[in-house]
Amino acid sequence: MKIIIVGCGKVGYTLVEQLSAEGHNIIAIDENMEKLTAVTNNFDVIGIEGNGVSYEILKEADIKGTDLLIAVTGSDEHNLLCCMIAKKAGNCKTIARVRNPIYHNDVEYLKNEFGLAMIINPESALAQEMSQIVRFPFAQKIDSFANGHINLVHFRVDTDSVLVGRSLQDIRLSLKSQMLVCLVNRDGEVTIPRGEFVIQAGDVLGVVAERAKVNTYFKQLAISTTRAKDVIILGGGKTSYYLAKILLKNGQNVKIIEIDRERCEELCERLPKATIIHGDATDHNLLLQEGLEDADVVVSMTNLDEENILLSMFCQSNSNAKTITKVNRVNFSGILDQLSLDSVLYPRLITADYITKFVRSASNSLNNDVENFYKLAEGQAEALEFSVKDDSLVTGTALQQLRIRKNTLICCIYRDGQVIIPSGQDCIMPGDTVVIILKDYKINNLDEILER
Amino acid sequence: MNYSIIRYITGWVLKFEAAFLCLPALVGIIYHETDSISYFGTAAICLVLGVLLTLKKPTSRSLYSREGFVIVALCWTVMSLFGALPFVFSGDIPSYVDAFFETVSGFTTTGASILTDVEVLSHANLFWRSFTHWIGGMGVFVFILAITPLLGGSTMTLMKAESPGPSVDKLVPKLKDTSIILYGLYIFLTALLIIILIILGMPVFEAFCTGFGTTGTGGFGIKNDSIGSYSPAIQNTVTIFMIMSGINYSMFFILLRRKWKQVFSFEEVWWYLGIIAVTGGIIFSNIREMFPTAGEGLRHTFFQIGSVITTTGYSTTDFNRWPELSKSCLVLLMFIGACAGSTGGGIKVSRILILIKSIRKEIATIAHPNQVSKIRLNGHVIAEDTIRSTNAYMAIYFVMMSLSVLLLSIDGYDFTTNVTAVIASINNIGPGLESVGPFGNYAFFSPFSKIILIFNMLAGRLELLPMLVLFSPACWRKR
Asked: How close, in Å, is residue B170 to chain A by CA atoms?
C-alpha cells in the first residue's frame, strides 16, 4: 500500500517503523528537517520537507496514487485539514489524530462529515486500555476480541502461586476450565507453549478466556479478583481526564494529584465526582497522607517517564496497590521488564497498533478482514482476530487435519455468542470469529496460516 | 564496527561476481576460445570464497554509515582484485598489477588501458573489459539491492556510499524498487543502443561491447583507434547515448511520469546540456579548419565533448593535436563531469552549481552582511550539511590530486602527462593529454604509479570518502 504519513513526531516515527517493516511504500512529510532525516536515515522511506496541509506538498508526494494518508502532527486542526485536502485531492482513505478533549464528542460527526476512515485519540485510547486493567487488577494487560466477549489476559506468575512447577496439561485437567494459556513470556523470550510446558515463577502468561468467566477462573487459581475501588491517578493530563471519566462512570473512587493549580481547577469543573488534590505527586508524605497504602490501583501518569517509574516503585514498596506506569519512550522497555512493575503502558505503541490494525485490514484484498490486532511482547508475537467468510480455505475441516504453519495457535472461536476453546476435533465455520496468535511471521488473511 | 556483516556482504558480492564472470566464459565458448577456462576458474574461486564467507550468518545486522562506507570501498577493491585474475590466467596481461589496473579501470568506468594493442585480445577478455564498465556504471550494490532482499533493514547507507552525487534521491519510497527502476532504465537504454548499432551495421559482438562501454560511460574500445573507424552514423549515435547516459536518471523517471513542471525545474540537467552546447560552439569555431567539412567538424567536436564531460573516454580523433583553447576546454570539462545520479564520473554538475551558488552567496554577504539567504538547486533548498560535504569533497579532491601528481612525478614523465593522467583517473575518464592522450595508453608508468592511479580511480568512482575511510583507524576500531 502507498501511505503518506504527515508528522514525524513520536507516533509518526513509530508508525513509519511499523508500517515500513510491514512492507508498505511510505512517504513521510514533516516541516522539521531533523525529525525527517531521523526517519529517512533509519527506515526505507522517502521524506519530503514541508507542511503536509499544503496541496503543493501533497501533490509532490503523489497524493493521487496514494491509498492512505495518516496525519499525526502536533495540531488537531492541521491533521483534520490535511485529511480533508487529501480526501479532495486524492480520494484516499485518511486517518487523523485528534487529541483535544474539546473535540472528543465531535469525533463521530467529524468522521462522517469529512469522510475520515478513522480518528484516533491517543489519550482516550490509552485511557480505555488502562480502564481494562483497573477492572481486572491482577492483569498486566488485557486485549479484547469479538466486541469484548473474549479477553486475552496477561499476568505475571508470583512465587507463591499454585501454578508454579505445574505443566499446562496438568492445570487444564485439574481446573476443568475453558481457559487456554496461549503465550508465555519468560525473561523477554516469547513462546507459544505446548501441553508439557512447565510454568516457573516470574513467567508472564497470556490466557484466553470468555470475558464473563475471567474472574471465576482467576479465583480458581487463588488470585485475588476483587474489583478495584479506590484509584489514585498521579498527574492530571489528558489521559488522566479520560481515565477518570471512565472509572467514575463505573462507580469507582478516583483521586487525581496534580501539581498545576489551574489544571486542578479545570479538572474539578469537568469531573465533579473526582477528588482533585493540588500537590506534587513526588512528595511521598503527600502520597501517604492521601491514602496510598489503602488504594487499590495507582496510576503514574506524570510527564516524566523517570518520575513515573520511580513513583510506581515507591507504591509497590509502600502498599499493596497495583501500579500502572505510563512510559513515553519505548527504547528502555527491555530494562523495565527487570523491575517487575505491574503494568507498563506505552502510549505511542498503542496508537501505532490501532493504525497498523487498520492498515492490515485495509490492505487485504480478500474478504477475511483483520478485525482486531495486537502486538504482543514488543512485536515478538501478534494476536489477530478474523471474521471468517464463506470462501475461506480453513473452514469445514477439523483443525488437526489442517496443515497449519509452525508457531501458530488458534486460541479461540466465537460462534453464535458461544466461546469455544478449540481442540483438534473442532472446525472453523463461516461466520465464526477466530482469534489467532502467531510468532515469527505476519499475515493479512486468515488463509495464510496454512502451509503453502 | 560490525565485522560480521562486512564479511557476510563481501561474501555475497563475490558470489555475484562469480555469476558475472560466467558471461565472458560463455562468450569464450561461443568463439571457441580457451580463455573460457580462466573465467570459469576465477568464477569457481569467487564462488567458493563467497560461500565460505556467507556460511555463517552475521551475528548482528546493524549497518551504520561507517560499515556502509567500508563495505562499499572494500567490495569494489575485492571485486577488482578477483576480476583481474582471468587476464593473468589467460596470459593476455601477464603482470598482475597491470591486470588489476585494467580491471579497476573497467569497474570504475574509467577506460584507461595499459594495453598497447587491444585488437589481439580474445573475445572473452574484450567482453569482460566492457562488461565491467556496465556493472560499475550503475553500481554493484544498486544491482544487488534490486534483486536480493539479503540486506534488509537500513541499506540506505550502502546506496549513499556508492551512488554518485552530493545527496541521494530515492525515486520511490522503497530502495529495492528504486534500484529496480534504475536498472530497468539502464538495461532499456543499453538494449536500445545495441539494437541501433546493429541496425547501423556494427557487428553484433562489437555492438554489445560498445553498448556496455557507452551507457556505463566507461570507454574501453575494442579497436586501437576507439570509435574512429566506424561510420559517422554510428559515431553520432554513440555521441547521443553518451550524453544521455550523463543525465541524472531521476530526469528519465520524471519524464516517464510526465511531470513537466519538475522537468523544467531540473536545473542540473539543463546546465549540463547548456555546458555541452556552449563548449561545443567554442571548440567547433576553434577547430573548424582542421576538418574538410563543417559536418565532420561538428561530429568530432560533439563526440569528444560528450566523451569527456560524461567521463566516457571514447575518441574518434586525436584531440591531443587540437589547438590549446580546445584542449583547455576539454580539460575543464573533465573536472565538471556528468550529472549526479548518472553513470558518469567527475565532480558532477550539481556540485559545481552548489559551489558557484555558494561563491555568489559569499559575495552577496559582503554587500549585505545581514542578508539571510539559502542555496537552491532543482527548485529545492539545499541543506547546510550538503553544502558542507560538497566543500569537504572539493578540498579532499584537490589534496588527493596534488599528492598523486607529486607521487607520479617520481617516474619523471612530463607535467601535462602526469597532471592529465591523474585528472583522467580521479574523474574516471580514461584518456588525458600527451602520452596518455586518446591514442596513447598507461603502459609506460611504473607499478607504483599504477597503484596510485588505481587508488585515484576507485576514490573517484566512490566519491572519495569511502576509500579514505578504509584507511581511517577510528573506523576499524570496535565500538
From this structure: 7
A187: nearest Cα among A197, A202, A198: A202
B304 at the A interface (CB within 8 A)?
no
Residue B128 has φ and ψ, to the nearest 5°, of -60, -40
B174 near A CB under 8 A: yes
Describe the strand order of the beta sheet including A230-234 as a list of residue ranges.
A275-278, A253-258, A230-234, A297-300, A322-326, A343-345
pLDDT of residue A387: 82
Q: For the segment B258-300, what is each residue's pLDDT rounded down to a tens digit?
A: 888 888 888 899 999 999 999 999 999 999 888 889 999 999 9
Report the candidate in A212, B117, B319 with the shortest Cα–Cα distance to residue B125: B117
The answer for residues whose C-beta is within 8 angstroms of residue B474's C-beta and 6 or more apart is none
Q: Which residue, among B169, B174, B178, would best test binding to A if mutated, counting the most A CBs under 10 Å from its CB?
A: B174
Nearest to B300 by CA among B244, B246, B225: B225
pLDDT tens-digit series, residues B91-140: 888 899 999 999 999 999 998 888 888 888 899 999 999 999 999 988 88
C-alpha cell at B17: 561476481
CA distances from A379 to A14, A19, A330, A442 (A): 12, 12, 12, 11
How many angstroms separate the CA of residue A45 from the nearest CA in chain B? Answer: 5
Yes or no: say if B79 and B50 are a contact pair by the CB < 8 Å rule. no
Q: A394: pLDDT confidence band, cut at 50, 70 and 90?
A: confident
How far apart are alpha carbons B218 and B227 in whole angstroms? 13
Of the candidates A41, A42, A45, which has its C-beta nearest B173's C-beta? A45
Half-sphere exposure of B284 (CA within 13 A, CB side): 17
In this structure, are residues B460 and B345 in contact, taking their beta carbons and an 8 Å threshold? Answer: yes
Q: What is the mean pLDDT of residues A16-25?
A: 86
Q: A381-387 and A433-439: which strand pairing?
A: antiparallel
Q: Which residue has the cell 592511479?
A: B453
| Domains of chain A and any CATH numbers | 2-120 (3.40.50.720), 127-220 (3.30.70.1450), 230-345 (3.40.50.720), 356-449 (3.30.70.1450)
With beta carbons under 8 A apart, name residues in chain A contacting B176: 44
Q: How confident is the model at residue A369 (pLDDT cuts 50, 70, 90)?
A: low
Q: Please, are residues A81 and A7 in contact by the beta-carbon 8 Å criterion?
A: no
Q: What is the pLDDT of residue B224?
A: 84
Q: Which residue in chain A has the smallest CA separation from B254?
A: A60
Query: Looking at beta carbons, which residues of chain A come within 8 Å of B161?
Result: none
If phi > 0 it is left, if psi is from -120 to 50 it is alpha, else beta; for residue B412 that is left
CA B283 to CA B295: how far, in whole Å?
14
ipTM value for the complex: 0.76
Contact predicate B105/B460, CB 8 Å: no
State pLDDT tens for residues A312-337. 999 888 888 888 999 887 666 667 77
Give the nearest chain B residue to A42 (CA atoms).
Answer: B154
- Cell (9 digits) for A57: 506538498
R_g of chain B computed on alpha carbons = 22
- Contact status, residue B425 vs residue B112, Cβ threshold 8 Å: yes
Closest Cα to residue A111, out of A101, A119, A121? A119
Nearest to A46 among B173, B176, B383 (CB): B173
Q: How far is CA A268 from CA A16, A175, B75, in A?
A: 38, 47, 67
Angle at B19 between CA B13 and CA B20, to 5 degrees: 85
Closest-CA residue to A232 (of A324, A139, A122): A324
Distance (Å) of CA A56 to CA A37, A75, B122, B380: 21, 20, 57, 13
